[in-house]
Amino acid sequence: AVSALPAGARRVSLSMKDLGVEYPLQLVSTLGEAGVSYDVRADEVVTQASLTFNFAYSPQLLSDISQMVVLLNNEVVASVPLVREGAGGVSLTIPIDPGLFTTRNRLNFRFIGHYTRQCEDPLHSTLWSNISNTRTKLNLTLQRLNTGADLARLPAPFFDRSDPTKLRLPFVFVENPSNTVLQAAAATASYFGMAASFRGFSFPVSFYDTPASEAIVFGRSGSRLGNFTLPDVNGPSLILIRNPRNPYALLLLVTGRTDAEVLAAAKVLAAAPSSLSGTRATVAPVRLPARKPYDGPRWLDTTKPARFGDLVALEQLEGQGLRPGLLRIPFRAPPDLFFWPRKGGKIEVIYRYPAVPWLDYRMSRFDALANAKYLRSFKLTDLGPADQVRETIGRPVSQNIGNLDLPAYNVFGQNQLQFYFDLRVAKKGQCQSYLPENVRVSIDADSTIDLSGASHFARLPDLAFFSSAGFPFSRMGDQSETAAVISSQPSAPELEAFFNLVGRFSDVSGVPATSIRIVRPGALTDLAGKDVLVVGTVGMAARMPNLFAGAPFKIDGGRLRVSATDFFPRILSRFGSNVGSSQSREADEVAVSQGNLSSLMSWRSPFDKDRVVIALLAASPTQLPAITASFNDPRVNYTIQGDLAIAGAGGYSSFRVGESFWVGDLPFIWRSMWWISENPIALALVFILSGLILGAGGWLILSARARRRTRELGEE
């Protein structure tokens, strides 16, 4: 039986994939090595540790001289002989001395393989091992330290950048929150969402009492919450206190004498956390600068080429070994980029590699990919005479410059450039092969990706933009052009889903959501200039007929029904209008078949023709957080498209059932030329009509001239 944990302790089991290893580790040659980093939170220590080690290897290895060595911070933890009986796969549990762990740790696997006792080819095909990234796990018991409370440590202890696990941070309300308090919580969610970022995050909600963990509490001073009362304050305040239910956990109180002061305190937390210190801070309302579209620091700058060195740390541009694995450069781009008549962006990559006699330049190569799709391969070239002369005077010459196109269809909200070195050793005959050590390759920080010249022009609604990049809500970083519709008595899951979304929007742009507007179903007024976000149950549609009036969906008897596309838009779509082909019948069949509906839907806003409404609606509010969580799974996220997505087993069924429209700043001349290029039937009709008009005009002119000449001849 598993022993009970002492107070302040927790157990975690982290697979290699949880630690960032996306694929199984493949070790080759007589000496192959790879590993993974793991950092321990500053306020925790490891008290127990073990490794569940799952791997396979070649059955041709000699067991008495072949082994797999496990190291933690360069200390040997275990040495496993590679016997033939376990070649098909073996799983071991290896205890680890917890004293070997420090704040920053490196777990390494060293493969030492031999297939003969004679001279051997160090790159022979029998020299391989494979370590599972999903079944190899680091099992830890962590003890929380009773550290001091200080606002200067924010976002710690609520989020620690050393913690690789998903952030789960409860939000607590002392009463049914007002619009102003919901704005305060949204700003707070945006701050912690930006901090946790790719690790993932969620903000479960509770009312009237605190959980036995860290949590954020929103309420006016003097309010009663469980077994304690929020302290009196003299203005907008942020206060750290011990959780009465857990002495190892802290509560952050976002409070004030009024709801407006609660919001003011949250804005300081979100926009100026570095100004805070101590356990209690009374803050002055912060004046925030007006934002502009696409000015968030996490969007790639589309006005000029962007350096790789500005996108990632320099160590991420370096690799070690003959095949060091993928070098990755992630970046976020506005999903509404429109490159026409160009085909996409441009990449200039400067890559370095050894200039050595053992390298087989004919077989070695350098590959470029974008979002796991192959773009191009570059050959590695030997030093020419001029390069050799420059090398003698100390200039680096083992580098090439590669130029390639980044197709527009392969640019999304979240992207990743991937580069792969494949260095081959020149074969020199049996017993003469050479396995080089300490081989290093790199990509120069001055390599660039250039998306300049693109316009912001896109067809909406498009749920793929929303699921991948929070668009259009992430377009304006502070959410000043977003109106969020929340029910009058929102449930905890509804609010959790809403806060998860706001955190996601700010994570994309890098700007806290300090200006989002909260709207209730009975107060849908003055929404011009706003994109509208609806989060709730399907019953909300009946309470907002003016908002859903233009939607191609309706709620009939508690079920979602899809309206058939009108005859006129169907005819227009044949001639390339901005009304896409409809899938209404198929969508309606799927919607009717769903007993517990979970859906995403979008349509043109009835309050502004250039804005959209996006609604997350479910049969039960408990289903809503799962919708927001599904955005983090690339395999599921990929299935969300069109203007209606209905959740099902393994993903979403997506459809385009309503009217679509184009919005953006494409110059008129380019818009006209693009429309003509996209509508050949309409262009042919224009030519025919023009020909008829010109022909008729010419016929009238010639007829008039003939009549005049006849009259002139008659008079003569």
Poorly predicted tracts of residues? 566-581
Helix content: 10-25%
Radius of gyration: 31 Å
Average the pLDDT over all residues and give the rounded result.
88
In terms of DSSP E residues, the strand content is 25-35%
The number of distinct β-strands equals: 42
How can the largest sheet be summarized? Answer: 7 strands, mixed
Q: State the end-to-end distance.
A: 125 Å
Spatial order of the strands in the main sheet?
A: 34-33-35-39-38-40-41
Number of helices: 14
Shape: globular
Helix and strand composition category: alpha+beta
Description of the molecule:
By secondary structure, the protein is α+β, with helices and mostly antiparallel strands. Helix content is 21%, strand content 32%. It contains 14 helices and 42 strands. The strands form ten sheets. A seven-stranded mixed sheet has the order 34-33-35-39-38-40-41, sandwiched between helices. Helix 1 runs parallel beside helix 2, helix 1 (179-196) packs across helix 6 (492-509) and helix 6 (492-509) packs parallel to helix 11 (624-630). Mean pLDDT is 88; it is low at 566-581.
Protein topology:
Layout: E1 9-15, E2 25-28, E3 31-39, E4 44-57, E5 67-72, E6 75-81, E7 90-95, E8 104-112, E9 128-131, E10 137-144, E11 167-168, E12 171-173, H1 179-196, E13 201-202, E14 205-207, E15 215-220, E16 224-225, E17 228-229, E18 237-243, E19 246-256, H2 259-271, E20 280-282, E21 306-307, H3 308-311, E22 318-320, E23 327-332, E24 337-338, E25 344-352, E26 365-370, E27 373-379, H4 385-392, E28 399-407, E29 414-422, E30 440-443, E31 448-450, E32 455-460, H5 463-469, E33 482-485, H6 492-509, E34 517-519, E35 531-537, H7 540-543, H8 545-548, E36 553-556, E37 559-562, H9 567-574, H10 584-593, E38 598-604, E39 612-618, H11 624-630, H12 634-637, E40 644-648, E41 651-655, E42 661-664, H13 668-678, H14 680-715
Helix pairs in contact: 1-2, 1-6, 6-11
